[in-house]
Amino acid sequence: MNKTNKRKKAKRDDYKDRPIPKLEKDPPALDSFKEVWAKLMTTPIHLDSALSKLNPKKKTILAQVLPRILAQPLSLCEYFGIGVVEGEPWSLSREELQTWRPAILLAERMMASMDKGIPQPKGSEYDFPPDMIAQWKADWGDARVKELCASLVISPPIGLRVSTKTTREKVLGELKKGSDLPVKTTLSTATPFGIRLESYAPIMKTAPFVEGVIEIQDEGSQWMAVFAMDPQRYGEFLSDVPREPAVTTSFPKMPKPVSMIIVDACSGAGGKALALADILDGKGRVYGYDVFESKVAALKKRAKRSQLNNIQSVWVKEGDEEASLTKHMGSADLVLVDAPCSGWGVLKRNPDIKWRTNSADLKRMPELQLRLLSLYSKIVKPNGKLVYGLCTFRKEETEQVVEAFLNRNPGWEKIRGGYYGPGRTDGFFMQGFIRKT
Questions:
Q1: Do residues 261 and 333 touch, judged by C-beta distance below 8 A?
Q2: Residue 169: Cβ-neighbour burial (10 angstroms; 0-12, 13-18, 19+)
Q3: How buried is residue 19: exposed, middle or buried, by Cβ count under 10 Å (0-12/13-18/19+)?
Q4: Would you call 50 exposed, middle or buried from its count of C-beta atoms within 10 A (0-12, 13-18, 19+)?
Q5: How far is CA 282 from the centre of its chain?
Q6: Whose CA is closest to 140, among 393, 358, 354?
Q7: C-beta separation of 248 from 189 below 8 A
Q8: Which of 93, 95, 250, 270 could bond to 299 as cystine, CB 3.0-4.6 Å?
Q9: Distance between CA atoms of 62 and 60, rounded to whole angstroms?
Q10: pLDDT of 115 over the 80 cut
């Protein structure tokens, strides 16, 4: 039991019916908080989608409050002196969580004190489900768990990827000169194409974004794209454990663009597919495959804004992907399988994930990942490259899937691989392979 519960331990009846203290003026977004909180706990809606449905004023308020409560429920309760029953919130069902009173009390007190700044206590393992912490300790040991807990509650920066048609120094100058961005903006020390914003800013209203010169993309996600292009060269920046990426301002040069066929097997809205198409400088063809039609449509829209004509988005039917791959069998120079995963590497950006994680989802992930990796490996040509990528550091989904793939699929050889982040970036695992036969 943590210090909060030692000092604030209470029987449920001590506060379950206690009315929320009234302020001189109720926070204007408190009712919206209750509605969004209940949806997050009882439906599949994600945090970004839930916030996007609010009017701008309420969205601005909840975007500062809701992620912090999701990320650090118990640390914030201790900070504000709110009593919590031992074991909560992780012992509660999804239905019980939708009316978890400490969350509502936190929202009220944080909204009332926003002019003083949103607090961010030091990360604690009690802010994560016990089963998740137990898995981290089994995989990485106690010392690494402390580092992960500290890293995965920090408010994330915003990463921007700059088009190869210009330079990031030039774009940074344009952003500072022509935009009224209320946050610190610097060159990335994690990726060769990156700019970092200290926190959220209305970047989509800036000229570079409207003109398609920049894309919003986490720096670790950018790194996976450059790693995919050259695992041998960029693999030296990876680690054998999840940790803060090394700081550098001297990046290896990318090879000169050549005509290649690249397949992004699980492209989503296409951040990495767009980066790969941009690196090719209009040469060759990048195919972005996904089972969600809405994401395929989003990739088409983003490619048009970025003026990239060498990218094609393709919808495939889940479970019947092989039918869509026939024309590519044995012909792709590079295949990136950025597979569905537990998402533990992006918890600071999507803290709602840890409130939804269950053992059934975790159990099915490795088999799904192995199926997709084995399936898409078939379209790689001899001496071509295959890259397996995930936004998690769970060994059962990373290293163990890699070994299972090699055991089931002869003719492949590992080249470079490892972990990138979490820290200043989200956390990723990536492994390169080359087809020997």
A1: yes
A2: exposed
A3: exposed
A4: buried
A5: 27
A6: 393
A7: yes
A8: 270
A9: 6
A10: no
Q: Which two tokens stand for residue 218?
A: 């986490």
Whole-number Å distance between alpha carbons of 187 and 247? 12
Q: How far apart are CA 397 and CA 432, in angstroms?
A: 15
Each residue's pLDDT tens digit, 1-55: 444 444 344 433 343 444 444 444 556 789 999 999 999 999 988 888 888 888 8
3-state SS, one letter per residue, for 329-383: CCCEEEEEEECCCCCHHHCCCCCCHHHHCCHHHHHHHHHHHHHHHHHHHCCEEEE
Amino acid at 216: I
Please give the Cα distance from 361 to 56 (Å, whole number). 34
**Paired tokens of 141:** 């040991």
C-alpha to C-alpha distance for 40 and 81, rounded to whole angstroms = 25
Taking the mean position of all CA atoms in its chain, how far away is CA 116? 29
State the Cα–Cα distance between residues 234 and 243, nearest whole angstrom.
17
Pairing type for strands 185-187 and 194-197 reads antiparallel
Q: Which residues sit opposite 338 in a β-bridge? A: 389
Residue ranges, comma separated, of all CATH 3.40.50.150 domains in the chain are: 218-435
> Do the beta carbons of residue 27 and residue 37 sit within 8 Å?
no
pTM of the model: 0.88
Cβ-based neighbours of 179, under 8 Å, separated by 6 or more:
205, 206, 207
Q: How many helices (H) and strands (E) would you count in the chain? A: 19, 11
Element at 174 (helix H, strand E): helix 168-178
Q: Which residues contact 237 (CB under 8 A, 6 or more apart)?
A: 223, 245, 246, 248, 420
CA distance 58 to 150: 29
User: Is residue 388 within 8 Å of residue 402, measured between CB atoms?
Assistant: yes
Nearest one of 318, 314, 325, 355 to 339, comparing CA atoms: 318
Say if CB 281 and CB 272 are below 8 A apart: no
Burial of 330 (0-12, 13-18, 19+ CB in 10 A): exposed
pLDDT per position as a tens digit, 297-308 = 888 888 888 888
Topology of the domain covering 218-435: Rossmann fold (3.40.50)
